[in-house]
Amino acid sequence: MQFDCVKRRDFIALLGSAAAWPLVAHAQQTAGNYPRIGAILASQNENFEGFLSGLREAGYVDGQNMRLEVRFFGSAPDRLDELTLELIALKCSVIFAGNPYAIRAAMKATSTIPIVGIDLESDPVASGLVKSVARPGGNFTGFFLDIPELGGKLIELLKEAVPKASRFAVLWDATIGTAQFHATETASRPAGVTLQSLPIRQAQDINETIEQAARGQAHGLVVLSSPLIFVELSQIANLALNARLPTISLFNSFPKLGGLMAYGPDFPSLFLQAGGYVGRILAGANPGELPIQRPTKFELVINLKTAKALDLPIPGMLLVRADKVIQ
Questions:
Q1: For residues 213 and 165, is the Cβ–Cβ distance under 8 A?
Q2: Which residue from 70, 162, 212, 242 has the least number of CB within 10 angstroms?
Q3: Strand order in the sheet with 140-144
């Protein structure tokens, strides 16, 4: 009797194990079939963390229900074609391109894999990336700054901080920011303010251009956007401070690195929204029907420590409008 019970228990256990085999095999198969998300960015920073948060809010977590393949190109944009082809070879379901260099590399490499991008320098329609803002068409959608009047706003704010200024230098990336610079150059600005153009093409140009601004007796420096400039923000802030140049940028991380001021969109929020777009595409949305988005929230950030180092009193009316003040 005892023998029969043991055999019966063993038989039931065997049945349980046999029943579990297909479930284990299914779990392994499902894990192997997770969708892959490719991401191409210049570096790992708070913007990338925003992108991951957007994916999580959309219900996607790396290793649980998707695989995230990230490629950072640093200061070597010439590697972008190679990195993009790596992601395509991995059969990624969606590619996130975190800057215009990456967008162009991805668009050149595939017309079928959905692409979500972020571009601060271009007009998406004029550049030929999409057919229209409301219905992009094709395999691409994303988030664009494309606010020509923003350059004029930067000049206006810097003039408020330096009321006696009459000459500002403008640092911009000649490889990607021509339209942005021309929009800044022609934007409405305070009377009596002239601009000095400081184009750069590589990081090595930055030191000379800021020295050029100082020699030209600029009263301040307006820093426009590009992936190259973003990577070099700390160097720009330090060089400008040594040259005693008050500065403003649209990157809200700039004052944290020693720049005087920033006025621009909440960039981590943009990347969070991009993560949400990727999640929607994985859930079945057509990228060509997801409208191009523009930022709606802008922040003014002022670094009072830098102002003190420059012996520059910030007007009270400007301080009260600041969203963040770094002491």
A1: no
A2: 242
A3: 67-72, 36-41, 94-97, 115-119, 140-144
CB-CB neighbours of 258 under 10 Å: 21
Do residues 288 and 136 lie in contact, with contact meaning Cβ atoms separated by under 8 Å? yes
User: Is residue 201 domain-shared with residue 312, that is, in the same domain?
Assistant: yes
Res. 32 pLDDT band, cuts 50 70 90: low
> Cα-flanking dihedrals φ and ψ of residue 325, to 5°?
-125, 125
Which residues lie below 8 Å from residue 163, measured CB to CB, with a gap of 6+?
315
Of 61 and 297, the one with more pLDDT: 61
| pLDDT for residue 39 is more than 90 | yes
134 contacts 109 by C-beta, under 8 angstroms:
no
CB distance 170 to 150 below 8 Å: no
**Tokens coding 134:** 């409301």
Residue 96: name the closest of 297, 296, 270, 291 by CA.
270
State the residue range of the domain holding 236.
Answer: 150-265+298-326
Structure-block tokens of residue 263: 């006025």
Regarding whether 121 and 186 lie in a shared domain, the answer is: no
